[in-house]
Amino acid sequence: MTTVHDRGREAGGGDGRGHVLIAADKFKGSLTAVQVARRVTAGLRHVVPDLPVRALPVADGGDGTVDAAVAAGFERREVRVTGPLGNEVTAAYALREGTAVVEMAEASGLQRLPDGVFAPLTATTYGTGELIRAALDAGARDIVFGVGGSATTDGGAGMLAALGGRFLDAAGQPVAPGGGPLRDLESADLSGLDPRLKDTGIVLASDVDNPLTGPKGAPAVYGPQKGASPEDVAALDAALAQFARVLARSAGPQAQEYAQAPGAGAAGGIGYGALVGLGASFRPGIEVMLDVLGFAPALAGAQLVITGEGSLDEQTLHGKAPAGVAAAARAAGIEVIAVCGRLALSPTALGTAGIRRAYALTDIEPDVRRCVAEAGPLLERLAEGIARDCLS
Asked: Do residues 154 and 127 make contact, with C-beta atoms less than 8 angstroms apart?
């Protein structure tokens, strides 16, 4: 059998071996992207001890984005901000040479809620605005704003309020936090937004291209996973529609148009707030993050790329990290193997995505609960199989 190693040798150069690039996302609930890279490296080297390996943990803008940036050499900065329930939490962003990576889930994500506690109508993104302000205070001139994993559906109103926006009811009082109270919004004033935002390049990095409202909008599609009942979904959809109408009066008709723009519905509509209030531009999260993390230089000279995430399924094909990694590697003519906890894609679908083969934890341990609990050791065993099949 001709292995990847053999093809590298045929290409010439030393012993012909390029490095293996591990560019995988987290296994949610089990392993961080950094831990995935470590376990895969260990498994590969059990079989090929002197194998050159380079780890580049990746993320698509959702939770884990700051960790991926730190692993790539950014400095981790921590700040106390307002959590989604109004309590104070410690959130982190990443900074390097004037570029900040801000992850909304750090301040306003589901991870900030106590187990079993949801607040679909009242959870706020105020802390995300505080996190952005901290990045500006630290000298950020460009911000990669990763959104996903949110506990909120407030259209980014809380974020904009933290940055100087004002949202008032008919009595001239600030509306309460959360998406639900936006039903009472009568006026909005964005003139007090932090002036530094005008001189800051902000990219909205997301794997979600939903609009703000409607059948495919933020409340309908993502509200239930944040604890929203059907009645809550209807209330939030109406409240966000009111938010867009009021912003159209104060910020101009483009605010109404932005409600239907790709990414507006990301992370409970915070994408909409970023587009309208922060002047952000939308790009698929994995594309942005591969640029920021330095994927192209890491790919140069690689003989094989190993990517992956917890579940390889239909969602993977629509802007998730493994699909983005595979597309970039395929464009460079480098083969891609995927690792995952659970595989729900056919070989044909994998091939179309540019993935030669996928290895799942459930291949060696059918009990899903054990896969979650013992993901690290199982992943090492999986990587040993990859080394035997493709590298030895």
From this structure: no
Residues 119 and 230 in one domain: yes
Q: Side chain identity at 254, as an amino acid letter? A: Q
Between the alpha carbon of residue 40 and those of residues 22, 237, 384, the distances in Å are 8, 43, 8
pLDDT per residue as tens digits for the range 202-260 = 999 998 899 999 999 999 999 999 999 999 999 999 999 999 999 999 999 999 999 99
Given a contact cutoff of 8 angstroms between Cβ atoms, the answer to whether 58 and 146 are in contact is: no
Residues 75 and 218 in one domain: yes
The answer to whether residue 12 scores a pLDDT higher than 50 is no
Q: Between the CA of residue 183 and those of 175, 221, 264, 327, what are the distances in Å?
A: 9, 19, 18, 42
| Nearest alpha carbon to residue 101 among 79, 70, 125, 124 | 70
Q: How far apart are CA 231 and CA 221, in angstroms?
A: 14
What is the total count of domains within the chain? 2
Cβ neighbours of 183 (radius 10 Å)? 17
Specify the length of the chain in residues: 392
Residues 57-112 have pLDDT tens digits of: 999 998 899 999 999 999 999 999 999 999 999 999 999 999 999 999 999 999 99
- Record the pTM: 0.92
For 390, the 3-state DSSP assignment is helix
As given in the structure block, the two tokens for residue 116 are: 């079993």
**Do 133 and 281 fall into the same domain?**
yes
Q: Which of 287, 321, 338 is the last residue of a domain?
A: 287
Please say which residue of 287, 306, 326 terminates a domain: 287
Question: What is the domain range of residue 332?
Answer: 4-56+296-391
Domain harbouring 129, CATH code: 3.90.1510.10
Strand-pairing partners, residue 342, are 311
8 A C-beta contact, residue 334 and residue 304: yes
How much is the mean pLDDT over the chain? 94
C-alpha gyration radius of the chain = 22
Neighbours of 386 (CB within 10 A): 23
Q: Dihedral of CA 37/40/42/47: which sign?
A: negative
Please give the full DSSP string across 303-322, using - where no structure is assigned. Answer: EEEEEEEEEESGGGGTT-HH
Residue 273 has pLDDT above 70, yes or no: yes
Check which CATH number belongs to the domain holding 17 and give it: 3.40.50.10350
347 and 265 inside one domain: no
